Amino acid sequence: MAEIDETQHWRRSGENIRIAREATGLSVRELSRRIEVSASHVSQVERGLASFSVPTLYRVAQELGISMDSLFEEPGKPKASVDFAEEQRAAAGEVSLEDAGVIQRVSSRPKLDLTSGLTWERLTGRVENNAEFIEVVYEPSQHASNPPSEVVRHVGREYGIIVSGELTIQVGLSIAVLAEGDSIAFDCSIPHRFWNATDKQVRAIWFIAEESGASGKSAEESMMARHIY
């Protein structure tokens, strides 16, 4: 797949947000009120002219009843999901593992560039049910002097491993620095935040297992923002 720039990533995601907002019958002003940002900023995001922070993006997904994975997809197309029949066809040699969504090639990873020098790349060929598997890239020191002000929590359990660099993490009141090869697993209902306080890029792999039946309707009771960097 050809490389696309950050503006194109947000144009795609913004269009998906607009489609979902209109489907729920919410106005730009009402959505902006619920997520506590200006209506003009919501409008700019929907037109691909601006981006949301990570926690705001999750609040948007929560209010619109959509998955974060759906923002990776091309606007207007049916949202991909795990298809076990296709996996069986691939196992029988009838279709390729790539077409079945079993393999995700690095050259065609769905990608989302976020604010604060943060990039997500989905590591699965299709949207997973109640789980997300992503690589996150944190650009050099966005928070060298001070950590981000917000903490987040959600329903489920989170697992991560640092591929390169050093990432500062806070879970509850405890703060630690994870170096290359270090890993973490914790209950996501505990308030947490992660940030890059160094002058070097950080790469990490994250797996988030959501609780079965999480509806994505409440910031405190279901799929709220997973990361604040």
Report on the structure:
- This protein starts with 5 loop residues before the first helix and ends in a 20-residue tail after the last strand.
- 32% of the residues are buried.
- The protein has 229 residues and is an alpha+beta fold.
- It contains five helices and nine strands.
- It is globular and about 55 Å long.
- Helices cover 24% and strands 23% of the residues.
- It has a six-stranded antiparallel sheet with strand order 1-2-3-9-4-7.
What's a quick, concise take on this entry?
This protein is α+β, with helices and mostly antiparallel strands.
Task: Give short descriptive properties of this protein.
24% helix, 6-stranded antiparallel beta sheet, 229 residues
Which H/E pattern describes the elements? HHHHHEEEEEEEEE
Report the total helices. 5
Terminal Cα span: 28 Å
Radius of gyration: 18 Å
Global morphology: globular
Instruction: Give the averaged pLDDT, no decimals.
Output: 82
Query: Which structural class do the helices and strands define?
Result: alpha+beta
Q: How many beta-strand segments?
A: 9
Strand percentage, roughly?
A: 15-25%
